C-alpha cells in the first residue's frame, strides 16, 4: 500500500512565524503535490514537483515556497504565516506517467 | 470537527439503499477521471477511476459512469453502509496538464441507520 505521511496533524502558529510542513512518501513516487482545502473551495494546488530539486507553481503559490531535496520528501514552507493561511494542508504523491494521486492524512494549521 | 463540508451539498440515504453521487466536469478534453472519499479528519482516499475511452467501470460495490456528451460523471454505491458516510470528490485530468488533477468541491453522503 502507498503510504504518505505528514509530520503533524495539527499545528498552531502565530502571525509572522515561519512554518514548515513535511511530507514523506514510501513508494518511490516521482511526483509530489501540496494542496490546501477550505470550506466551499475544494482542493487547490499550491505547488508540485516532478523530481528532486524541481518545483512548479500551482494555482495559489503566493505566500508559500517548497523544497524537495530528496525524492521521498516534499516540504511546504510558509515564510511568514498569516491568518488567511489557516487551512487544511494535504500532501499527495503519484508515479511518473500516472494520474492517480495518493494523499496523506492532512495537517490542520491554525494561524493566530 | 470537520469543517471541509460546511458548504457542501448533502445526500442522505437509508442504510442498504443505493447511492448516486453526481459530478459535472469542466473540460471536454479531460481524459481521466477519479473519485475520492474523504472521511472526517482524514485525507482523500482513492475509490475508483475511469478513462475517457470508457463509459462505465465497476469496482467492489461501486460503479463509475461517464457521459462525455454532457460532461457528467457519477458514482454509484450499492447497498450503502454507515462506513460510506463521507465527503466524495470527483477530479479530472486535463490532457495538457502534466498529470495535475482538477477537483470538484465535493458531496457529503450521510447514511441513516
Describe the structure in your own words:
The complex is a heterodimer of chains A (about 110) and B (about 110). Chain A is mostly beta strands. In chain A, about 0% of the residues lie in helices and about 55% in strands. Chain A has strands at about 5, 10-15, 20-25, 30-40, 40-50, 55, 65-70, 75-80, 85-95, 100-105, 105-110. In chain A, the strands form two sheets. In chain A, strands 2, 4, 5, 6, 9, 10 and 11 form a seven-stranded mixed sheet that branches. A four-stranded antiparallel sheet of chain A has the order 1-3-8-7, with no helix packed on it. In chain A, strand 7 and strand 8 form a beta hairpin. Chain A is globular and about 40 Å long. In chain A, about 35% of the residues are buried. Chain B has about 110 residues and is an all-beta fold. In chain B, about 0% of the residues lie in helices and about 55% in strands. Chain B is built from no helices and ten strands. In chain B, strands 1, 3, 4, 8, 9 and 10 form a six-stranded mixed sheet that branches. Chain B has a four-stranded antiparallel sheet with strand order 2-7-6-5, with no helix packed on it. In chain B, strand 8 (about 85-95) and strand 9 form a beta hairpin. Chain B is globular. Chain B starts with 9 loop residues before the first strand and ends with a strand.
Amino acid at each position: 500500500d502507498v503510504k504518505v505521511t505528514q509530520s503533524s496533524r495539527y499545528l498552531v502558529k502565530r502571525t509572522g512565524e515561519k512554518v514548515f510542513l513535511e511530507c514523506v512518501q514510501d513508494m518511490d513516487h516521482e511526483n509530489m503535490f501540496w494542496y490546501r482545502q477550505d470550506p466551499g473551495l475544494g482542493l487547490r494546488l499550491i505547488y508540485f514537483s516532478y523530481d528532486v530539486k524541481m518545483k512548479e507553481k500551482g494555482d495559489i503559490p503566493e505566500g508559500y515556497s517548497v523544497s524537495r531535496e530528496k525524492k521521498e520528501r516534499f516540504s511546504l514552507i510558509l515564510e511568514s504565516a498569516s491568518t488567511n493561511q489557516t487551512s487544511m494542508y494535504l500532501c499527495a504523491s503519484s508515479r511518473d506517467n500516472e494520474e492517480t494521486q495518493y494523499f496523506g492524512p492532512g495537517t490542520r494549521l491554525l494561524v493566530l | 470537527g470537520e469543517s471541509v463540508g460546511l458548504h457542501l451539498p448533502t445526500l442522505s440515504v437509508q442504510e442498504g439503499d443505493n447511492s448516486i453521487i453526481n459530478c459535472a466536469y469542466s473540460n471536454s478534453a479531460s481524459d481521466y477521471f477519479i473519485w475520492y472519499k474523504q472521511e472526517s479528519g482524514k485525507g482523500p482516499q482513492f475509490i475508483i477511476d475511469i478513462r475517457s475511452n470508457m463509459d462505465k467501470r465497476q469496482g467492489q460495490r461501486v460503479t463509475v459512469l461517464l457521459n462525455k456528451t454532457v460532461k457528467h460523471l457519477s458514482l454509484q454505491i450499492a447497498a450503502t453502509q454507515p462506513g460510506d458516510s463521507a465527503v466524495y470528490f470527483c477530479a479530472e485530468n486535463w490532457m495538457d496538464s502534466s498529470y495535475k488533477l482538477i477537483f470538484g468541491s465535493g458531496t457529503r453522503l450521510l447514511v441513516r441507520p
